[in-house]
Specification:
- The complex is a heterodimer.
- Chain A is mostly helical.
- Chain A has a single domain, classed as ABC transporter involved in vitamin B12 uptake, BtuC (Orthogonal Bundle).
- Chain A is 75% helix and 3% strand.
- Chain A has ten helices and two strands.
- In chain A, α1 packs parallel to α5, α5 packs across α6 and α9 packs across α10.
- By secondary structure, chain B is mainly α.
- Helix content of chain B is 76%, strand content 1%.
- In chain B, strands 1-2 form a two-stranded antiparallel ribbon.
- In chain B, α2 packs across α12, α12 packs across α14 and α12 packs parallel to α15.
- Classes of the chains: A mainly alpha, B mainly alpha.
- Chains A and B meet through α4, α8 and α10 of A and α5, α12 and α14 of B.
Chain lengths: 283, 320
């Protein structure tokens, strides 16, 4: 792998991190496997695309995507998931049904064509880093991934909300018993996770483009990240994203048609030894 | 089932009453093509085939307590192999059929090796991811799979080209397979799976090799899903990535749940209901995916016990 490909792997890992961290936050705290996460990514990407082309502002596109996905997340959580609280399997399958509805809705609104979110002028072109000429936008994605990681790290480890979230992951009932409205913490986490999917959609939409099956592709990568990294661990998602991102790039270089298969290998090895993932703990 | 009342004079493992019911259902099913149009016979064939898929998922979900979202992929792999073997490699239909089922079983073995150590949501996630990998390969490996365009090929043997002949052949096959599945879940092995579903730790401390039982259960389930997939390839003469896509697994799971988890034969009821719905809906709109999603959400909220289970619950409530 040369430097260029290494960068490709790292930038893809950064995108995966943004998407999968939202997924694992929800999974870790609420025990909800949100299979609509891929659909939120795609839908967020489309909305970000629409806002960004209409207003000409990439930043507004990102904010629009995040706000819209948080709103859809609100509908999903408060409108539907509240009826099946406490039933793991029914929750998962419900989010799957929701994903089908969202995808089809996206198909109705935007059709089957592929869209690419316009990159702002500042981020076009390339930069010379470590001896290679590399697209500025993808470096920006890498930087955003690092910023999101740092923000989540501070949020989880150095704020009251973060302390509540961590406590909730370990024992939600005890947190509730000590007088905290854990329901609100759950809701905030769900909205935050959904918004991250939207942000990922806009970022990914600018270099992977948006098309009807992009949601399934990003979902399977996110699942691989979470299966490798373990439930509800920020470090786990980081390590998982790096592994999956780099392996995927390596796979595309070596066996272009079977790249999917290359993330399957480490997943298999890992599951044989640690069924809960690298940083996962038993519930 | 109620062995206390009726004498256990059993024919092929069934009580006298069960035999009569089974024969009546079979006779009615066999007579169907005489009154239906060709198009409707096609739908009925599809219901039978998907009934087998739903039942194969139910072996794991209803009897081992593990819901798989990867069975659509196993089903689809069988279809791909059948079409490839007969259209590209020129093998006779029977051989292609056998190869398809073997390939599906092998995929099931790989899935099972990885999945048996997990349970609950993790099992679901893992089978989902594995199924999607199969889908990704079918989509990208263009030279072999035909990529997004899929593969077409006349797979059916000459004898079974007409709708009716094929229906009867499928009915015969499906009857045999259903009987085999029924015997499987009622065997001591099937009862062990039930024990694992109810309490894994207890079965383990009783000395059962839980992982091995789950592994075999998964493989057998995959074998049956493979039969359904091979039949579907012969029915359709066409495979494409959507045959192995997540939607296929989801439809199978939905049929299984709609029919009732753990009822086995409910799979046919679920398959009939969903296919009838799909057919009715597509007369009005192209938005089948959306209707499927909404159906899924509604069933999860209002009828998680399936159509039969919910009707039964409503009836008993009214009787009181």
């Amino acid at each position: 792998m040369n430097t260029f490909q290494l960068f490709n792997g790292l930038t893809f890992a950064a995108l995966l991190f943004v998407v999968a961290s939202g997924f694992t936050l929800i999974f870790g705290l609420l025990r909800i496997v949100n299979l609509a996460h891929g659909a939120l990514y795609l839908f967020g990407g489309y909305i970000g695309f629409a806002v960004a082309t209409k207003t000409g502002s990439f930043v507004l596109g990102g904010l629009g995507a995040m706000a819209a996905m948080a709103a859809i997340g609100f509908v999903l959580d408060q409108g539907l998931l509240r009826f099946v609280r406490g039933h793991d399997l029914r929750q998962v399958l419900l989010t799957l049904g929701f994903a089908f509805v969202l995808n089809d809705l996206a198909l109705v609104i935007w059709g089957g064509d592929s869209f690419t979110v316009p990159i702002p002028q500042v981020l076009r072109g390339g930069l010379r880093v470590f001896g290679v000429f590399y697209p500025t936008y993808r470096l920006f994605v890498l930087a955003t991934g690092i910023v999101v990681f740092a923000t989540l790290w501070v949020l989880l480890n150095h704020t009251r909300l973060g302390a509540l979230i961590r406590a909730g992951v370990d024992d939600a009932e005890m947190v509730e018993a000590s007088g905290v409205n854990i329901g609100r913490v759950f809701l905030v986490t769900f909205l935050l996770g959904s918004a991250l999917a939207g942000l990922g959609g806009l970022m990914g939409g600018a270099f992977l483009s948006l098309y009807p099956s992009a949601d399934a592709e990003i979902l399977v990568f996110s699942l691989a990240v979470v299966i490798i990294g373990g439930r509800g661990s920020l470090i786990g998602v980081g390590v998982g994203s790096l592994l999956v991102g780099l392996l995927n790039t390596l796979g595309q270089v070596m066996f272009p048609e079977l790249a999917y298969f290359v993330i399957f290998g480490p997943m298999a090895v890992l599951l044989a030894f640690r069924p809960l993932g690298l940083f996962g703990r038993a519930a | 089932m109620t062995q206390a009342t009726s004498q256990p004079s059993k024919i092929a493992g069934m009580t006298g009453r069960a035999v009569i019911v089974a024969l009546a259902v079979l006779t009615a099913a066999a007579a169907l093509p005489l009154v239906l149009t060709n198009y409707q016979v096609g739908l009925a064939t599809e219901m039978l085939i998907f009934g087998v898929l739903a039942m194969s998922i139910d072996i794991l979900a209803g009897f081992a307590g593990r819901t798989s979202l990867g069975h659509g992929a196993i089903f689809g792999v069988s279809g791909y192999v059948v079409v490839y073997a007969s259209a590209q490699a020129g093998l006779p239909p029977a051989m292609a059929f056998a190869l398809g089922v073997i390939a599906a079983s092998l995929v099931a073995v790989i899935f099972a090796l990885l999945a048996v150590r997990t349970s609950g949501v993790y099992f679901l996630l893992l089978t989902l991811a594995l199924g999607m990998i199969v889908w990704g390969i079918c989509l990208r490996w263009t030279q072999v799979t035909g990529g997004e365009n899929g593969m077409r090929g006349d797979v059916r043997p000459a004898l079974l080209v007409t709708h009716r002949a094929f229906y009867w052949a499928v009915l015969a096959g499906v009857t045999a397979v259903s009987y085999a599945m029924w015997r499987f879940v009622r065997s001591p092995f099937g009862l062990t799976l039930l024990g694992i579903r109810d309490s894994e730790s207890r079965m383990r401390s009783l000395g059962y090799n839980v992982s091995l039982h789950l592994f075999i259960g998964f493989t057998v389930s995959g074998f049956f899903a493979g039969i359904a997939g091979a039949l579907y390839a012969m029915f359709n003469n066409f495979v494409s990535p959507s045959t192995v896509a997540l939607a296929q697994s989801v439809e199978g799971v939905l049929m299984m749940i709609a029919g009732g988890v753990g009822t086995l034969f409910g799979g046919f009821v679920g398959a009939a209901a969903i296919i009838a719905l799909e057919n009715a809906v597509s007369a009005y709109t192209e938005r089948w995916q959306m209707v499927l999603g909404i159906t899924f959400i509604l069933i999860m909220i209002f009828a998680p016990e399936g159509i039969i289970g919910t009707l039964r619950a409503i009836l008993t409530r009214k009787q009181r």
